[in-house]
Structures are given as C-alpha cells and as structure tokens.
C-alpha cells in the first residue's frame, strides 16, 4: 500500500505544480515523456528503487497532464474569436442536460472544430431561445449559432472552467438536431425508461426519486434541496458508489449464472452504461473506476483491498482528467470512501449493541469523519445532526436504490402497474424527505473554529486516557 499512496501523493504534487507553473507545450511534452519512461523503468524494477521511480513518474505525469489541460483551455482555433466576441455557427454534442431558472437555460457542449479539434463551451439562452435548448438532453448532436464570449469571473463560471469550458456561447439558437448514437443512445433510452416509470408518483416524490436513482435534481423544489443540505443528506441526491452497487445487485441474478470472464465483461458494460445514464458525475466516475479495477483484479486472480482499489482509481482518474482535482463532488466521494475503508471496521468493533445497528452507524460515522475536512474546506460548516440523519435515512435510501430502480423499470414498460409498484417507493421517499426536514430544523452546526476546538479537546482527553492507562499498568507491574 506504500507504493500506491506514494504515487498518489506525488501525483497530487505534480498536478498542483503544473497548475501554478503553467508550463509551455514543450515542457509539458517533456514532463510526460520522462514520466512514461520512469513509469516503465519502475515496472521492470523489483528493488526498493521501484517506489522512488513510480513516485517520480507520477510527479512528472501530473505536472505534464495539468499543463497540457491548461494549455488546451488557453490556446485553440477559437481563441481569437472569443476575444473578439464573434458570432459563430458550430456543430456540437451536449455533454450534460440543460438546466437553469425559468426563462433561461445553459448546458455544456463539446464543439467540433477544424482538424478534429474539440473544445467545451457553455451554451446559454434566455427568453424564447431557452425553450428549444431546454428540450435537449445529453448526447444530442446539434448545430448551434451564438456569440462567443470569455467566461465570467464569478463562482459559477469558475466551476465550469474546471469542467474544461473555454468560453461562453451566448444567445444560442438551435438550428439542427440529430439524436445520439452508441453509448449515449443506450443510456438515454434506459434513463427515459426509468423516468417514465415514476409517472405515477406525486411531483415532489418523482423529482426526489430521479435524484436518488439518477442524480437529476433539476425538478426538486428549492426548499427540499435546502432541507437535504442543512441536514447533511445532500449526498443522497448525488449518485454515488452505492448506486453502482445497487445496479450490479439488480443484475446479480443474471451475472451469477455466467462464467467469470463473461460475467466480468457484462458487469463492466452495465457500469459504463449506468455511468453514461448519470452523465458521468465525478462520484460515479470514482465508483465506476473502483468497480472496474476490482472486477479486472478478480478476473486476473489477484483481488486487492478496498483501500488499494480506491487509491488506484483516484490515480487513474486524475491522470485522465487533471481538472477533477478541483471537483468538490469528487473530493467528497473519495473522502467518504477512504473513511469507510479505513475506519468503519475499527469503529464497529468499539460500538455496543446489535450488529444491524453497529455496522450502519459505523459506516455513517466513518464516512462523515472522512468528509469532515473536505466539507469544512469547501463550505465552512458541518451539520452536527448529519451522522444521526444518515443512520435514519441511509438504510432506507439503500432499499430505495434497489426497489425504486426495479419498480421504475417495470413501470416504464408496463405503465398500468405504476400506481401499484410505486406505492412503496412513495413511502421510502417520504421517509427520507421527513428525516431531511427534521434534521434541517436542528440549528447546531460545526464551523472550522469549533472543529479545531473539539479536535483539541478530543486529543487532550485521549492523551489523559493514555497517561492514566500507562500509570495503571506501571502500578500493577511487580516492583
């Protein structure tokens, strides 16, 4: 485990170094080339030098990957047109679903440029032009006209910048539309089937079910979203590793009948399609990569621990997309998984009570301990009621993830069964919403200063306990 951890730490150092140094193309290419050479040397080395070579390789690869991504944002065939606010007509593909307040819409699109070049733009429209844009979905291929403009210096555009957007395309008009093909088409059919299967639910329950199952929170009322945020249950509305596990569990009866090789390939296909259904959310990317690594390791006859799989998955994703370093969702997902992998079993061993209470509580506490530093860094506060709220809501959310998905799929094919099949779904969603509402009413939250104070107090208590135990052992030992 020392090797992967060292590689991850040096990769992070390289990414941060590349971000602050802004290397030119030649330096970027040189760093990547040296990193690949060092990585190859580490692969064929069997001594202690292997860890040092791998760490150096990750440092260089991180530096070069971040530099390459930043250079791609700053230099393209659109650079001069962006500076001049030119009006353009582009072929593009939506990489997400449109969103935004009433009478306006925005969506990320991947524009096709000259010589096979591609760049991501934030397409926006308002008034009458927003309706055609809002009717689209991820994967649709379109021809758009609009006016290019630099990204603004505000919080929203800064977040979009770290999703590879290079500019805005404002006052968009949709000139032509063609449906997606391949993976996106399969994902959209499956996604639409699930959404159609929730038609029998009340609007609020339907919106929450779409959030639980697919991460689509666009239709959830603002007050409900606030309840989930204030109670620390927002992660239930963001598709995560649990949802990937739910999908695999749904296909479990079929997968278990197949041979190992075919089972692994089919499971990988299911994971990829589900990731596309959820629009490749960062938390789903982390979970999907972990599942893929675990499946491949099992197929190769070399199963690995959860902690090692997590580290390898994070390394692979950060190398593929260095900008994930600035994704709060990715950081929270990795922190929660790390907390569960490291601390859930030790916590469960020290808790009292029946197993069905100890284990979920231990997982909740471990996950919250993992995300606490990230949440304080990103939001500056942490609801004190979160562990209790998660204990009450998370098991129900797990049941909803399996039953709600199955019921929605069946109801999508047989709409007449929807009112009957979705009754349990409505009860499960109602309970989770009730827990979020009650939890949000608890006003106590930890800020950064309070957390430091509690951490210091806990360290002092632990030190006193250790000192007391040492004195007891000394006094009990023969003179």
Structure classification: alpha+beta
Task: State the end-to-end distance.
Answer: 43 Å
Number of helices: 19
**Total individual domains:** 3
Which sheet architecture does the biggest sheet show?
5 strands, mixed, barrel
Q: Which geometry do the CA atoms define? A: globular
Helix content bin:
55-70%
Tell how many strands the DSSP assignment holds.
7
Radius of gyration: 25 Å
**What string gives the helices and strands in order?**
HHHHEEEHEHEHHHHHHHHHHEHHEH
- Beta-strand portion reads 5-15%
Q: Could you give the order of strands across the largest sheet?
A: 1-2-3-5-4
Q: Spans of 5+ residues with little confidence (pLDDT < 50)?
A: none
Look at the structure and give the mean pLDDT: 85
Oligomer: single chain
Please describe the structure with a list of short key phrases separated by commas or semicolons.
479 residues, alpha+beta, OB fold (Dihydrolipoamide Acetyltransferase, E2P), 3 domains, five-stranded mixed beta barrel, two-stranded antiparallel ribbon, 65% helix
């Amino acid at each position: 485990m020392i090797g992967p951890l060292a590689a991850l730490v040096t990769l992070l150092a390289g990414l941060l170094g590349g971000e602050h140094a802004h290397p030119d193309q030649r330096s970027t290419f040189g760093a990547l080339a040296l990193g690949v050479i060092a990585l190859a040397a580490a692969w064929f080395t069997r001594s202690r030098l292997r860890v040092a070579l791998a760490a150096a390789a990750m440092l260089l690869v991180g530096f070069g990957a971040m530099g390459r991504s930043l250079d791609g944002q700053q230099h393209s065939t659109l650079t001069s047109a962006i500076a001049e606010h030119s009006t353009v007509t582009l072929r593009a593909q939506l990489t997400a679903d449109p969103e935004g307040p009433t009478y306006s819409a925005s969506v990320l699109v991947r524009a096709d440029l000259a010589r096979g070049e591609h760049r991501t733009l934030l397409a926006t429209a308002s008034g009458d032009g927003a309706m055609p844009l809002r009717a689209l979905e991820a994967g649709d291929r379109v021809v758009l006209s609009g006016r290019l403009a630099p990204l603004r210096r505000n919080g929203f555009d800064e977040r979009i910048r770290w999703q590879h957007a290079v500019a805005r395309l404002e006052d968009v008009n949709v000139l032509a539309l063609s449906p997606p093909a391949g993976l996106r088409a399969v994902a959209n059919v499956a996604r639409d089937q699930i959404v159609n299967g929730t038609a029998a639910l009340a609007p609020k329950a339907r919106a929450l079910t779409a959030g639980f199952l697919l991460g689509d929170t666009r239709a959830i009322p603002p007050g409900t979203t606030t309840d989930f945020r204030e109670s620390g249950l927002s992660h239930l509305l963001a598709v995560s590793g649990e949802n990937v596990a739910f999908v695999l569990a749904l296909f479990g009866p079929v997968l278990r009948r197949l041979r190992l090789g075919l089972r692994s390939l089919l499971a990988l296909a299911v994971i990829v399609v589900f990731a596309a259904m959820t629009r490749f959310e960062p938390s789903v990317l982390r979970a999907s990569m972990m599942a893929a690594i675990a499946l491949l390791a099992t197929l190769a006859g070399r199963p690995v621990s959860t902690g090692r799989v997590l580290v390898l998955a994070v390394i692979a994703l950060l190398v593929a997309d260095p900008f994930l370093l600035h994704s709060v969702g990715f950081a929270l997902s990795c922190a929660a998984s790390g907390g569960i992998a490291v601390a859930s079993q030790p916590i469960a061993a020290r808790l009292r009570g029946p197993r069905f209470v100890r284990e979920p509580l231990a997982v909740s506490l471990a996950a919250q301990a993992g995300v606490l530093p990230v949440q304080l860094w990103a939001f500056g506060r942490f609801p004190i009621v979160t562990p209790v709220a998660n204990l009450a809501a998370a098991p129900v959310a797990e049941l909803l993830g399996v039953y709600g998905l199955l019921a929605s799929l069946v109801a999508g094919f047989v709409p007449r069964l929807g009112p009957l099949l979705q009754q349990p779904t409505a009860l499960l969603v109602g309970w989770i919403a009730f827990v979020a509402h009650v939890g949000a009413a608890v006003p106590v939250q930890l800020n950064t200063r309070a957390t430091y104070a509690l951490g210091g107090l806990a360290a002092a208590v632990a030190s006193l306990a250790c000192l007391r135990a040492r004195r007891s052992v000394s006094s009990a030992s023969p003179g």
